Amino acid sequence: MTVKRKAFSIPLYLQILLGMGAGILIGIIALHFNGTPFIQNWIYPWGRLFIRLLQLIAVPLVIVSLIKGVIGLKDISKFSRMGGRALIIYLVTTIIAIMIGLSMGLLVKPGEMIDQTQIAHIQEKYQVIAEEKAIVAEQSKEQGPLAFIDDIVPN
């Protein structure tokens, strides 16, 4: 009798939490030891590639799931009810999201509590930094060593 051993005996949710904690810890250490260039050149491209791959697969996955669901219907009359129900759910959730967003905007009134002199001070303070960043961005047209990996997957 052979006993199969799982590759990861740690539950998935704990692996995710440990990964998040490790990411936060590595980020703090990198900031403390000025590891920003290393992160931007060697770690950031892999994360961006991962996100782009997720975006690349999302639309085909949804379309194939919808097609499979439609093909799996035995009674065509259920299709119209399901489509109508999906449309109603979509419209209702959209209206609820709009109502929540508008009510929070009217309730909180973002930007209204900031004094005009404070706004002018903030703009003056960060104008030079913004101009420096724009110059650096123009100069950094030549990207890091892993830029070719980032360009493989379209966004």
Helix/strand layout:
Elements: H1 12-32, H2 36-71, H3 76-108, H4 116-139, H5 147-152
* Global shape: extended
Helix and strand content put the structural class at mainly alpha
Average predicted local confidence, pLDDT: 85
H/E series: HHHHH
Description:
It is a single chain. The chain has a domain at 75-112. The mean pLDDT is 85. The longest helix has 36 residues, at 36-71. It is built from 5 helices and no strands. It has 155 residues and is mostly helical. The chain is extended. It is a multi-pass membrane protein.
Structure, briefly:
The chain is mostly helical and 155 residues long. The protein has helices at 12-32, 36-71, 76-108, 116-139, 147-152. The protein starts with 11 loop residues before the first helix and ends with a helix.
Keywords:
transmembrane helix, extended, cell membrane, 5 helices, 155 residues, mainly alpha
